[in-house]
Design goal:
Organism: Leucobacter chromiireducens subsp. solipictus
InterPro entries: MFS (IPR011701), MFS_dom (IPR020846), MFS_trans_sf (IPR036259)
Helix content: over 70%
Protein name: MFS transporter
Subcellular location: Cell membrane
Keywords: Cell membrane, Membrane, Transmembrane, Transmembrane helix, Transport
Distance between the termini: 23 Å
Structural class: mainly alpha
Shape: globular
Oligomer: single chain
């Protein structure tokens, strides 16, 4: 008997949504712990001989380097996800990310091991990037392909929620750690604690992800022998333009996320304005909570409006409008203003993130979907957030004007708007394509009646 999306019980859909959210939360806790720690202490711990400014640039560059390996993770996980299944990739990527994070917490510093220390740091960051490149596609598809009709945006926002919640946990743990250890204590030993906590989260996530059932869409593809033999080659041969456009729809959001909660605002507020680290981290934590709420709202709204694109357009419009107030409020050096600035910014980020899983799933054919969504997400991350903190730091240092960073963010949002307007909004399309029979077959079917 064929397994179809229409007969899946809603209880299983909710369970899968929760499982993808928990697993993605753990993955992105690991990822954001690195980004924020890079903003705070990695320049001193691993790159200090280069001088303060160059060390900070290189510290942010290690955040970006991992993005270059996301496409490789997307290619490998996409191929296996389209051939072997979604669930197996979810477990494998989670284990890789957790192992890399734990090992970073055990690394020697430059003072202890010399040049070996930054080399090991970069290698582990590469492993994190490889894992992240393959993780999101599997989580997104598991949630969307288990979703009831008319609720793909809402269910698809579950793995999206893992990103802001992971950021909330990461910034919260860092805020508590910096407060408990103080500046010197955090630099000496405290920075390791958030990384080592990752091993506990890894065990929890592994158990939860192992418990979910395989995607019903993949099960039907396997039963009907409709899986692609070489998903990546077919994807690039037939849909390369769609992959590029989909990546660009994500680039503006990713730049916004990594600029604000991904380290740059934290670095700008603490290094340029010398604001209290713990206070700014709590602002980032609160903004992450707003991001989570608006992400869920964005997914729900895309179902309500029966349009993913329109929700995106509202979000990117708000991003363009808020790009300048974002830093003007931070420049006041008042904690309450920083809080307002970041929370308002997260409204636009959530609206352009909540619909993404459903949007990506609906624009790619089922037998190439894992490869398509994973590669688009990875390329969008490179074009958007990979080097956003590095670019912003360079712009601010070279121009002496923080407004140049605001222009950069507005331009990224505008690029995403153009890509969205080119791609057809495929809200509600069937997740498994039913090929029309040939004319002769149609005639035969009619005569048989």
């Amino acid at each position: 008997m064929s397994v179809t999306t229409g007969v899946r019980p809603r209880r299983e859909g909710r369970r899968v949504a929760i499982a993808t959210m928990v697993g993605t939360t753990i993955e992105w806790y690991d990822f954001f712990i690195y980004a924020n720690t890079a903003a705070l202490v990695f320049a001193q711990l691993f790159f200090e001989p280069l001088g303060a400014q160059a060390a900070l640039l290189l510290s942010f560059a290690t955040v970006g380097i991992s993005f270059l390996f996301r496409p490789l993770g997307a290619i490998v996980a996409g191929h296996l996800g389209d051939r072997v299944g979604r669930r197996a990739m979810l477990v494998a990527t989670l284990v890789m990310m957790g192992a890399a994070t734990t090992l970073i917490g055990l690394l020697p510093t430059y003072e202890q091991a010399g040049i070996l220390a930054p080399i090991l740091l970069v290698l582990l960051r590469v492993l994190q990037g490889f894992s992240a490149g393959g993780e999101w596609g599997g989580a997104a598809l598991m949630a969307v392909e288990h979703a009831p009709d008319g609720k793909r945006g809402l269910y698809g926002s579950a793995p999206q929620l893992g990103v802001p919640i992971g950021m909330l946990l990461a910034s919260g743990v860092l805020a508590i750690t910096t407060a408990a250890f103080g500046v010197d204590g955090f630099l000496e030993i405290g920075w390791r604690i958030p990384f080592l906590i990752g091993v506990v989260l890894l065990v929890v996530g592994f158990i939860i992800r192992r418990s979910v059932e395989e995607s019903p869409v993949f099960l039907e593809l396997r039963e009907n022998k409709a899986r692609a033999k070489m998903p990546l080659l077919e994807l690039l041969r037939k849909h390369w333009w769609l992959v590029l456009l989909a990546a660009l729809t994500f680039a503006g959001n990713n730049a916004a996320g990594y600029m604000s909660t991904g380290g740059y605002v934290l670095s700008y507020a603490t290094n340029v304005h010398e604001m209290d680290r713990t206070a700014v981290l709590w602002c980032v934590t609160a903004a992450s909570a707003v991001w989570a709420v608006t992400t869920l709202f964005g997914g729900w709204l895309s179902d309500r409006w029966k349009s993913r694109r329109n929700v995106y357009l509202v979000g990117y419009g708000l991003q363009i409008l808020w790009a300048f107030p974002l830093f003007l409020l931070v420049d006041t050096q008042i904690v309450a203003m920083v809080l307002i600035s970041l929370c308002a910014w997260m409204l636009s980020t959530g609206l352009t993130y909540g619909p993404q899983a459903a949007y990506f799933a609906e624009i790619f054919p089922s037998h190439l979907r894992y490869s398509g969504v994973s590669l688009s997400y990875a390329l969008g991350a490179i074009l958007g957030g990979a080097f956003a903190p590095t670019i912003a730091t360079w712009l601010q240092q070279s121009t002496g004007w923080i407004g140049s960073v605001s222009i950069y963010l507005a331009v990224m949002a505008a690029i995403s708007i153009v890509a969205l307007l080119i791609i057809k909004d495929r809200w509600g399309r069937p997740l498994i394509e039913r090929e029309e029979p040939e004319p002769a077959a149609k005639a035969e079917a009619v005569s048989a009646r």
